[in-house]
Design brief:
The protein is an alpha/beta fold and about 375 residues long. The protein has a domain of about 190 residues: Vaccinia Virus protein VP39 (Rossmann fold, 3-Layer(aba) Sandwich). About 45% of the residues lie in helices and about 15% in strands. The chain is built from 15 helices and 8 strands. Strands 1-4-3-2-5-6-8-7 form an 8-stranded mixed beta sheet. Helix 1 packs antiparallel against helix 4, helix 3 packs across helix 12 and helix 4 packs across helix 7. The radius of gyration is 21 Å and the shape is globular.
Length: about 375
């Protein structure tokens, strides 16, 4: 059975075989080879550092500078990067092969349930424009023409390999964990308007419309190609969503407009300067009594053992995610408070998710 199940993208026998190979390679590198780096860290790198400096590593930055000298780490890192590159090659080959057909399939004709508004004049912030996040060719802001869906196609075709290749088990979509968290914490919340920030290719969008069927759903992203793919998928499923190309730091929505604002694994792909601006705009467009909730990868560095703090920092330096480490060092409550939310009304919690394990939720209620 093909790894990819998509309403528009078809996978042939050879492409599926290649996907399976890349998945197997990534799983071997991440789950079999990766954990063995702890021996190198504890028995070689740290003793060498201690012999030279007379102490252990103070932080993950010192550990990284020492570990990059180790041949085992160099081999693992080379294999990891190679497998990531192969993942994007197989994603790109599928997308390019059927590119014209995908343009045709995702062009909505006739009456639409939802809407889409792109903005060719939107200035894409540097934390997206200057970084091909995860190594994705062209990055999230890739725009080949005024009907382009390549970024959405690449995002979708890589997703089935990326998560499983890191050991995430299949099952319920991660956004369901945030939905459950919100409904448990705010049982009286009955949102009429919901905004999803950083919706990418719409992987989470459907679940919000299903969880709150009485709500009108809006979704924004910086990438026009992402939005076109997301819009086409929602129209295919008969779901009304209103997509627009906007920067979450300063949206075009009026004050006091939404009852619920959410994001799913977005904030680690922003920046230290952008995050307080995003929180401030969320507070501006949120109604009184409304809720803001952001879910992201569960890494608070202060709670990790020294080795895991170093190991998890791989993405900051070698996986095109420069804000990864800084976010997980941060007290997320500070930018939320700076955005206008009251300290007593904000949250910063780990939320359980079966079968994935745990995620991190941060946000607050406007009172």
């Amino acid at each position: 059975m093909p790894l990819l199940n998509h309403p528009f993208i078809q996978v042939n026998h050879d492409e599926n075989a290649r996907d399976e190979f890349v998945l197997g390679l990534k799983r071997h590198i991440n789950l079999n080879f990766g954990p063995k780096l702890q021996d190198v860290y504890e028995k070689k790198a740290q003793p060498s550092f201690r012999k030279e400096k007379g102490r252990n590593f103070k932080n993950r930055h010192e550990a990284r500078k020492q570990m990059v000298k180790e041949p085992t780490f160099q081999s693992w890192g080379s294999l990891w990067s190679t497998a990531q590159g192969l993942m994007w090659e197989t994603s790109e080959s599928k997308s390019v092969r059927q590119y014209d057909d995908l343009i045709d399939k995702t062009t909505i004709r006739g009456k639409k349930k939802g809407s889409i508004k792109t903005n060719s004049k939107l200035e894409i912030p540097r934390y997206v424009s200057a970084v091909d996040i995860h190594g994705m060719p062209g990055g999230y802001g890739l725009e080949l023409n005024d009907k382009d869906i390549m970024s959405g196609a690449l995002y979708d075709t890589s997703g089935s390999i990326y998560g499983k290749g890191q050991g995430l088990r299949g099952g319920n979509h991660p956004s369901l964990a945030l939905i459950k968290f919100i409904k448990n914490r705010f049982p009286n919340l009955k949102p009429k308007k919901i905004l999803e920030q950083g919706c990418s290719a719409g992987g989470s969008t459907f679940f919000w419309s299903k969880a709150f069927p009485e709500a009108k759903i809006f979704a924004i992203d910086l990438g026009a190609g992402m939005l076109r793919m997301a819009h086409a998928k929602m129209e295919k499923m008969g779901v009304e969503v209103h997509f627009s190309q906007q920067n979450a730091e300063k949206t075009e929505f009026p004050d006091n407009h939404f009852d619920l604002i959410i994001s799913n694994i977005m904030i680690h792909e922003t920046s230290s300067k952008a995050l307080p601006k995003i929180m401030k705009d969320c507070h501006r467009i949120l109604k009184k009594g409304g809720v803001m909730a952001h879910m992201d990868v569960p890494l608070r560095n202060k709670e990790l053992p020294a080795y895991m703090e170093w190991y998890r920092d791989w993405s900051t330096h070698f996986n095109h995610e420069p804000f990864w480490g800084a976010l997980h060092d941060m007290d997320i409550k500070k930018p939320i408070i700076a955005g206008g939310f009251k300290k007593q009304n904000i949250f910063d919690e780990m939320i359980p998710d079966n079968p994935h394990g745990v995620w991190w939720a941060a946000g607050g209620q406007k009172v």
